[in-house]
Write a structure and sequence with these properties.
Length: 145
């Protein structure tokens, strides 16, 4: 796939999920696409609740016995295998090592994300269908002290 085709596919993902920006690393290349309106510099829209929650998460550290599961890639976070299906995990659920906890869709591929920890889910940070960035906290799991 040549570079122009990659960019077209990334643009299609942006339009499909109505994203304002997308940053993806493919091999040694980093692609960052940003949608701007003609008046974007003149007006700064107020932060939406998901953005505010993400900022709060960045400032809040989990307790020592809580392990953070972070996004291993950039993509769209899904809590269930398909629309209308039960979520893989909910807050309060007990998880085991290797258990599927969510899906991240990237480049039209569904990537199952598994837990590296056994414990109880205490927090699910992104909303279903929200774009997550590489290294962003997704799920907190409280392990035995």
């Amino acid at each position: 796939m040549d570079e122009q085709e990659k960019i077209k596919e990334l643009l299609a993902i942006m339009h499909e999920h109505d994203l304002d920006s997308l940053k993806v690393k493919l091999g040694d290349q980093i692609y960052e696409l940003v949608r701007r309106s003609p008046t974007a510099d003149a007006q700064v829209p107020p932060k939406s609740p998901p953005a505010a929650a993400a900022a709060e998460t960045a400032a809040t550290a989990p307790p020592p016995n809580v392990k953070r599961i972070t996004a291993p890639l950039v993509g769209v976070f899904y809590t269930a295998p398909s629309p209308g299906a039960d979520a893989f995990v909910k807050v309060g659920d007990r998880v085991t090592v290797g258990q599927v906890i969510c899906i991240i869709e990237a480049m039209k591929l569904m990537n199952e994300i598994t837990s590296d920890y056994a414990g109880v889910v205490t927090r699910i940070i992104p909303e279903n269908g929200e774009l997550v960035s590489l290294g962003e906290d997704m799920i907190w799991v409280e392990t035995a002290p």
